[in-house]
Design a protein that fits this description.
The chain is mostly helical. The protein has a domain of 84 residues. Helix content is 65%, strand content 8%. The protein contains five helices and two strands. A two-stranded antiparallel sheet has the order 1-2. Helix 2 crosses helix 3. The chain is globular, with a radius of gyration of 16 Å. The mean pLDDT is 89.
Amino acid sequence: MKLANKNKWGPGYSTKDIDITLKIGTLEDMKIGLGIEFWEIGELVKKDLPKLMINLLYYGYITACKDALASGIVVRPIYTKENAAFWYENLSQSAYKELTEKITILMGEMTKMGSKKKAEQKVS
């Protein structure tokens, strides 16, 4: 995903391709990092959407680093939540569209998991 990064040598910013991966584990890491329960994520959407999106970007970045490490590529996280806040503040239309698609896919996966659990409970 092309995200904004502050220029070290002058005003403004440049864009850089940064991997963001959203999985159930990303939400788990995010809830632990925020010190909230899983069900409180829904409340965070209603109360403080920017905080949620900044944390989604940050923990999605951390998840992408973990996935790269699992595949044998050593990627040490170099960005912080402050960088994620800058990414969110300067999100381009294409990056916003890509992020919402990733969120939609994640929510679809969660819905499938919920319906499978309900089906298993009915069978039991």
